[in-house]
Structure formats: C-alpha cells, structure tokens
C-alpha cells in the first residue's frame, strides 16, 4: 500500500508541476493603458473572451461585448464591470451565424461609436449544423461571420490607426484543409456528422482564420492597421458544451490537469492586441505569446486569396 501511495503521490506531483510550469505558459507583459481606446471582443460572455474583456476594461478601454445571447451577454456585462471596476463596458448583440445580424451590429456600432482601435475575433463554436444563411455552422460562425464583421469595420479601424485585428485560431489549424469544391457546392467545409468529421471541420475553420489573417495583412499594407492570428492553448472553456456527454466526461480529467484556465488562455490574445513593436510581424501567427512559423498550407498565397474571394461572394461583399 505504501508503494502504491508513493506512486500516486509522484503522479499527482508531476501533474501539478506540469500544470503550473508547462501548461500555464507565458504572460502578456505589456503595461499599455487604453484610456480613450475602443475595443470589440466577440464571444465575450464566456471563456477567454470574457477574461480578455475584463483585462482590457481594467486598462481603461471602452469595451464592446459582442455576443449572441442577450441573457448571457447582459450577465457578462455586469460581471465584466464588477471585475474590472469600469463602467466603460457595453453589450451589443451579435449573432455571427446570421449575416443580417452582423450587418446590423456593424451599422449600429458605426453610428454609436466614433472609434475602433482593436477588433478581437474571439468567438468560436464546435458543432455541426447550418446557419440561417445556409452555410456550414462552423464555417459560417468561425470564419464567414468574422470575415464580414472585419470588412464592415475596416475603414473605421484604418481611420483610428495604429489599430489591430486579432483572430483567435487554434493549433488545430495544422490538421485543417480547405475543400473548395465542397465550399462551392455545399457552402460548408464538409457534410459528415461523425465525431472525427466534426473535429476535422473545426480544424478546417481554424485554418480559415489563419489564411484570412495572412491575406488581410497584404490588404492592410500602407495603412496603420495590422492583424494577427493565434493559438490560445488548450483551454478549459465551454467550447465543447455542444459535444456528446461521453466526450465531455472523457475530457474532464484533462481540463483539470493539462488545460489552461481562461485567464492563462487569454494571454496570447492580449499579447497580440497590446504588445508594443510587433507591427513588423503583421499577418503572423502566435502561440504562447511568441511568433511561430507556419506550415506551407497556412501561408499559401493562392489559397488565402481564393478563400477571401469566395468569402466575399458568400457574404455579399462581391
């Protein structure tokens, strides 16, 4: 029994050290104050989006919580105000699965807010289905919704430069691929429903985020706006809330020992939004507050341009 207890103790000790030394990761070191600056954070009613919003509000920014659920958005609004000690926090409804909602949000924002200094495309889902516009759900929400939002707000961002667009991707983009035939035929990254297929489509949507940033950087040359994509780390959030109960049960031990909490998970987002002097890295991909190299498929000029043009057509910009 004593040997067994020693082994268990050793395992727990190693897990503790791994979590607090390896998993925790680097922190955003910027001391930037944001008084007079305006920031939009999508999906900021929960997870790393909410932690990001709290940090930015503490720095004095006017923070727009752009969320789909009015009930959860209003609850987050009160929490962000309370945790940050700031009243410069506003909730505005935004459903990224509805092109009409995205356009309405952009129109209302541009009418009511004179500035936009940082746009954080944080929201993401892990569920198969269709948007109200007939797009694949993860393609529509994780990519197209943010693509349209960014384009509708781009002129305001340029006017307020130096400004930044930060898109939360995932290391899962490394497993992604873009099936343009499927996109043209079905307006989706894929049409399967098995767990492995849904995971593949999620990774595909995260590759879209990286390619979007790659192409956007080219279009921002000569302006005072810059853009970045990032992997936040494995985070204990509600992303998998729509997955099966069995999968959630299997993931639970990993969330305790090996995944970051939401504050730790927001650090690379904050680094990309705030770190001074990274403008020469426009269009690059970050992980653990550090710029990373990408596989060729994630910086493919032709694929990025093709995805951009297809996205323009699908959301009515072309």
Automatic annotation (TrEMBL):
Q: Which Gene3D superfamilies match?
A: NAD(P)-binding Rossmann-like Domain
Statement: the UniProt record of this protein carries the keyword Oxidoreductase = yes
The cross-references to Pfam families, in alphabetical order and at most eight, read:
adh_short (PF00106)
- Which UniProt keywords are present, listed alphabetically? Oxidoreductase
One term of GO molecular function: oxidoreductase activity
Asked whether the UniProt record includes Cytoplasm among its keywords, one would answer no
The domain of life for this entry's organism is Eukaryota
Protein family (similarity comment): Belongs to the short-chain dehydrogenases/reductases (SDR) family.
Protein name, per record? Dehydrogenase/reductase SDR family member 13
Q: Which organism is it from?
A: Dissostichus eleginoides
């Amino acid at each position: 029994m004593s040997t067994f207890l020693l082994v268990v103790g050793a395992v727990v000790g190693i897990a503790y050290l791994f979590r607090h030394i390896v998993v925790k990761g680097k922190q955003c070191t910027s001391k930037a104050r944001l008084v007079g600056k305006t920031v939009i954070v999508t999906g900021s009613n929960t997870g790393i989006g909410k932690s990001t919003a709290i940090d930015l509000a503490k720095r004095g920014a006017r923070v727009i919580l752009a969320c789909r659920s009015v009930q959860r958005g209003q609850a987050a609004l009160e929490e962000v105000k309370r945790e940050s000690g700031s009243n410069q926090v506003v909730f505005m409804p935004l459903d990224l699965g509805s092109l009409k909602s995205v356009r309405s949000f952009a129109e209302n924002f541009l009418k009511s807010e004179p500035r936009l200094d940082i746009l954080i495309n944080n929201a993401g889902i892990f569920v198969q289905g269709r948007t109200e516009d007939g797009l694949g759900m993860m393609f529509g929400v994780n990519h197209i919704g943010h693509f349209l939002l960014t384009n509708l707000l781009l002129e305001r961002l340029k006017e307020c430069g130096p400004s930044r667009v930060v898109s939360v991707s995932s290391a899962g983009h490394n497993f992604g691929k873009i099936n343009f035939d499927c996109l043209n035929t079905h307006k989706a990254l894929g049409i399967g429903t098995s767990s492995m297929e849904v995971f593949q489509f999620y990774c595909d949507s995260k590759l879209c985020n990286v390619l979007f940033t790659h192409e956007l950087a080219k279009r921002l040359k000569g302006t005072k706006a810059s853009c970045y994509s990032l992997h936040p780390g494995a985070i204990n959030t509600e992303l998998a809330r729509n997955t099966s109960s069995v999968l959630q049960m299997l993931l639970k031990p990993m969330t305790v020992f090996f995944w970051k909490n939401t504050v730790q998970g927001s650090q690379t987002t904050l680094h990309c939004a705030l770190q001074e002097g990274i403008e020469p890295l426009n269009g690059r991909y970050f992980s653990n507050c550090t710029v990373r190299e990408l596989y060729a498929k994630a910086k493919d000029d032709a694929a990025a341009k093709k995805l951009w043009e297809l996205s323009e057509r699908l959301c009515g910009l072309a």
